[in-house]
Amino acid sequence: MNSVSKRLAMGFLASTTLPLGVIVPQAAAAQGAQARSFDIAGQPLEGALLAWMRQAGMQVGYEPGDVAGRTSATVSGTYSAQEALSVLLAGSGLGYRQTGSGAVRLVRAPQGAEASPGGTVLGPVRVQGQGARSANSDVIETATGPVPGYRATLSATATRTDSVIRDVPQSIQIVPRVVIEDQAAVRLTDVIQNVSSVQLNGTAGNRAETYSIRGFVSARYAINGFPLTSGMDRPEAFFDLANVERVEVLKGPASVMVGLSEPGGVINIVTRAPAKEFHFDGSFQGGSFDFYRGEMSVTGPLNASGTLAARATGAIQTSNGFRDGARKSERAFGAAALRWQPDGLTQVDLTADYVDQKVPFDRGLIADDDGNYVHDARTYYGENWSTTGAEKLVLGLAAQRQMNPWLMLRFTGRYTDALVTDSNAVDLQGIADGMVRRRITNRTEDSKDLTMRFEALADAFTGPLEHRIMAGVEHNRGDFAFWSARANISSIDMVEPIHGVTPTPVATVNNIYDYEGRNWGFYLQDQIALGEKWKALAGLRYDRARSYTWDRLDESETPTHDNALTFRTGLVYQPSASVSLYASYTQSFQPQQGQLVDGTLLDPEKGEQYEAGVKLDILDRLSITAAAFQITKQNVATEDLDNPDFSILTGEQRVRGLEIDLTGEILPGWNIIANASHLDAEITRDNTFAVGNRLNGVPAFSGRLWTSYGFSSGTMKGLTLGGGIRVVSKREVDLDNRFSIAGYETFDASIRYAFNEHWEVSVNAENLADRFFVEAVQGDNNLYPGTPRRVIGTLRARY
């Protein structure tokens, strides 16, 4: 090393692909004082410090010259982290001091003296951290692992580093697996409704979910930080919850983290990882509409040393559904994960999951020009041969290595191969004389997608400041082949539909095209601790997006070439360990297809958000996030009125909102997760729709409350009672605001009894009052009705 590099000692942040925790500011003192077992042999001091970090779950910063040539004392036994470090440093002439962000920094004796000034010292980070422990649970929380109870305090979604939620200057909500099980959720939508400002946008004909976040439609969600296939404008299949550890929603533009995206936010689903101890859980469910589901997951070590661990998860589900005349729904899901940890510095994860579904194609209900629609969720305008099917395989690889005490590198990659087939899918074309006009579409969508990321991560000390630095490069390539054929079929009565149209006519090919996308992203992020009370975040990303569309019918080619520089920044002020005040500015970037009348390609959509809020931790039990924000989406393509086959870029849409989310434990055994939001979503510039019109499908007010209480003693020990309410106000059917779709309230309840630590039985009832409501509004011919009263019984085992 030269004289400059000798002043650098680098360690890198734990990977978001690992269940490795981070010692966080509010938990640092308690974690450091907690007694635990240490076993560190006498050795060169630098290596001993690395072992201490792994076993204590804390970080150390130091000058390389201070530790060079020194050896450590042996540490063996039960100590607090500080006691173990004092023993390790005995006789070395070094001491340490606590830093403002929950780490320690070595200083020359006497202990407490100031470190040598000058230079930049990059210190080893939280390697193999122990995470944050709930005050009322033995589960130790990590940023990607199980959550002890309803309340999560760590996340890797917002920054792709293990971060404390209260340190992130942006609203982020987490729904852990325990909530999913308590509510007996069977859809991703059931989970998402626990988060403010998120609504189901539609299901693409009952194929997969798309959502509206803070008023803007987000067609793709992410799994373990990877957005779904870039070549698709919607997911390929419904997401199965069997392998879900937690669902996280980052609000507002997130292009710096995930690349091409809409400005409302991103939903990130974190899957279950292998564990070093054996664990099995399985359940069987049965309920209304001939719903049956079985799922299981088993995990544990594959060798005596525990360096190799695996998890296998599977689920099978069938249902006749509540739509009269529709075919049965069937889904099979399987997932496997393998984790190799040959030492404390290396980890490799291999994952695979597969889903095969066959469900009825269903556009929902339809409204006439006067806004009238049938108020019966069971009314179905398709036929029992109208089917949409999907097969999807996803393979993942994640590898990281801490090369030495000053360097960690990380690679993650994902490959997706999916085929969607719509067989005689019945679309709704309008209403004439009380009859719903229909057509069928046969369609195939064949997609392949590969995404790769390479990142380096570091903690840096610059004088009194601490930095979490991440630099990376990302490449995505997506290929998509589309084929469709259509034909009209007979109309059906709007109020009393009579099914049984056979045979179906021969469809005529109407569209064949191939799509190819190639995207590069380069990004840099710095999380800065400015002493004990201030934290800052800054991120920068450059995206280079290229796509080509070949129309195979008219033999034309449409290329798009877009580049964008997006930015995010924010500041957090923490006057106490339980209060965080924050403000942030973030941007988004999303290419779009189409062109102006002169042949010029459309500029990409751009979004920006201003947000301010407060995050409160109450008695280490409850977390509250309240936020105020404004999101503006620019370059919205609108129709060229003089040339209908082309577009112009005059559109701008704006959403201003207030929201609050609460989650945690009110009293021991009494859990709650609740939210409420108010969204003022309107068109602010357009040549087609009136300025001031509301964005369609976006309620002005929405909220959800769920609470449960578990008895831990007495004759009712093992019994848990729960219930909740969901409220959504009216929504506009389209951007013309021709008419509104009524809002709704639904009530849910549950009762669960645990026979012992291994077996429990529960009954959950959804929409107790059996009220009709429209859950998703995508247009006057895409009104998706909510589920009527549904009761589901669950038998669950855990070992």
Automatic annotation (TrEMBL):
- What CDD domains does this protein map onto? ligand_gated_channel
Task: Give the signal sequence positions.
Answer: 1-29
Any GO BP: siderophore transport
Recorded GO cellular component terms are: cell outer membrane
Q: What is its main location?
A: membrane
State which residue ranges cross the membrane: none
InterPro entries tied to this protein: Beta-barrel_TonB, Beta-barrel_TonB_sf, Plug_dom, Plug_dom_sf, Secretin/TonB_short_N, TonB-dep_rcpt-like, TonB_sidphr_rcpt
Membrane topology summary:
Multi-pass membrane protein
Q: Could you tell me which NCBIfam families the record lists for this protein?
A: TonB-siderophor
Q: Can you name this protein? A: Secretin/TonB short N-terminal domain-containing protein
From the broadest rank down, the organism's phylogenetic lineage runs:
Bacteria, Pseudomonadati, Pseudomonadota, Alphaproteobacteria, Sphingomonadales
